[in-house]
Every structure is written in C-alpha cells, then in structure tokens.
Write a structure and sequence with these properties.
The chain is mainly beta. Helices cover about 10% and strands about 65% of the residues.
C-alpha cells in the first residue's frame, strides 16, 4: 500500500511538471467505495476544449462482493446444509485504471458528467464470512466495467459520485454446488473528493 501511494505521488508530480499549459492537469482523489471500503489514487485531466475533455486515473480500489441470488449446498455429517449466498461476502483489492470522456458546464463552479470504461487488476481477495463454512470461489484477475460519474469542480477541489458496473464476472462458483446463478458481477458506487494541480 505504501509503495502504491509513493508511486502515485511520483506519477502525479511528473505529470504536473510536464503540463506546461492549462489544458492538462494532474490530481489526486480519495473516497469510499460503498459499502464501507476505500479507494485512493491519481489522475490526469486533459481538456480538448473549454467544456470537453478526457480523464485517466490509476486507483487502488477495494470492493465488497456479496454473492446474491444463489443458494450454496454443503454436504456435512448430518446430510446437507444450505446457505443463502447473499450471506457470503468477499473483499476484493484492485488496481483500477478508468478512462472517461468528460463534459463540463459553467464557469467558476463547474458541474460535470463523465462516462467511460475501467480495467481492474485483482491484487487479492479475502473471505469476510466468520462462522460460516468456507466456500471455494474463482476470481477473475482482470475485470472490465462501465462507469458513469457526476461531480462538481471548484478548482482546485472537486467532489464526485460514480457508478461502476462490471462487464465480465468478478467471481465464479462451482455450478455443481449452487442452486441459482454461479457468476457474480461487481456493481458499486464511489464517493470521492479530490484536488487538481
């Protein structure tokens, strides 16, 4: 985590030094990925015109995955034990690289909308199911997602709300052990505050 933060700071300082005009800015952002996890990282914001631009980001992003919509069947000494998979939760740790198209309105206080895609590389996952049987899952190391954001930019500070929806499944379960769906997609909301320079 410390290495990631250090690399992000070096990256953003380099971008800031390279940006010799007002069209390209570096920035940092931090926030929560609902429910109850964090994200932190850096960004490059490039304006093509006064109101249109692109934003590229590199984020460390935690995501909670709840396996809703299936029932997991375990065989134990007493026969079968059934668990609703919505009770099973996993915390996923990603490096995420979003790329977004941005449309900005206003002059001093600037509302904006962004839409784009993100590629996430899975660093690790952890089981958050104390007291429940272990469930073997398969995780995708590479996840892609759509994203849509709204925010307000009051330079140098901005606030933003983003919705992410996975294109490919983040988690697979053995279909022989599951009644219902066996693939699960990441869907989450991110609340961020950031600083551009």
């Amino acid at each position: 985590m410390k290495n990631l933060i250090a690399m992000s700071v070096v990256f953003l300082i380099s971008v800031s030094l390279m940006a010799q005009d007002n069209k390209t800015m570096g920035g940092i952002k931090v926030g929560t990925t609902l429910p109850g996890t964090i994200h932190i990282g850096g960004l490059i914001d490039h304006s093509f015109t006064k109101n249109i631009g692109m934003v590229a980001e590199v984020l460390y992003n935690q995501k909670n995955v709840s396996l809703e919509g299936s029932t997991v069947i375990f065989t134990n000494a007493n026969g079968k034990e059934i668990i609703n998979s919505s009770e099973l939760k996993y915390k996923m740790h990603y490096i995420q690289v979003p790329l977004s198209f941005r449309v900005t309105f206003g002059e001093k206080v600037k509302p904006y909308f962004m839409g784009g895609v993100a590629v996430s590389y899975l660093l690790s996952s952890s089981n958050n199911n104390p007291g429940k049987p272990h469930v073997a899952i398969e995780t995708n190391n590479l996840e892609t997602s759509y994203l849509a954001s709204i925010g307000v930019d009051y330079k140098p500070v901005f606030i933003e709300v983003r919705y992410n929806a996975g294109i490919n499944p983040a988690v697979h379960m053995d279909s022989r052990l599951v009644s219902g769906k066996s693939e699960f997609y990441n869907k989450n909301i991110m609340l961020s505050v950031g600083f551009k320079f």
